[in-house]
């Protein structure tokens, strides 16, 4: 673990947490929309519109290269992954 670039991986972890939170919010809105809550349906529509605009701005080749780099690093890591339980015990 000492060889890993902790600040970079910390940023990546933070980004993943943000995505997970957003996914949970969208899932909740979907459930409410399915239950007939019009406000939730309107919010989902706005989310979809924003997502399409965001995806249109993405630089796909750069993200593809980033994904390949992360994959390469992950395949070279020799130490076993640390579980969330082990992380919690260290705190």
Kindly state the number of beta strands. Answer: 0
Distance between termini? Answer: 16 Å
Number of helices: 4
Biggest beta sheet attributes: none
Q: Which percent bin holds the helix content? A: over 70%
Q: Helix/strand-derived class?
A: mainly alpha
Radius of gyration: 18 Å
Q: Low-confidence runs (pLDDT<50, min 5 residues)?
A: none
The oligomeric status of these chains comes to single chain
- Could you tell me the mean pLDDT? 77
- Overall body shape: flat
Strand content: under 5%
Order of secondary-structure elements: HHHH
Task: Describe the overall structure.
With 91 residues, the protein is an all-alpha fold. 80% of the residues lie in helices and 0% in strands. The chain has 4 helices and no strands. The chain has helices at 6-34, 38-57, 60-76, 84-90. The longest helix has 29 residues, at 6-34.
Set down the secondary structure blueprint:
Elements: H1 6-34, H2 38-57, H3 60-76, H4 84-90
Helix pairs in contact: 1-2
Short précis:
The protein is mainly alpha-helical and 91 residues long.
Give structural attributes.
about 90 residues; mainly alpha
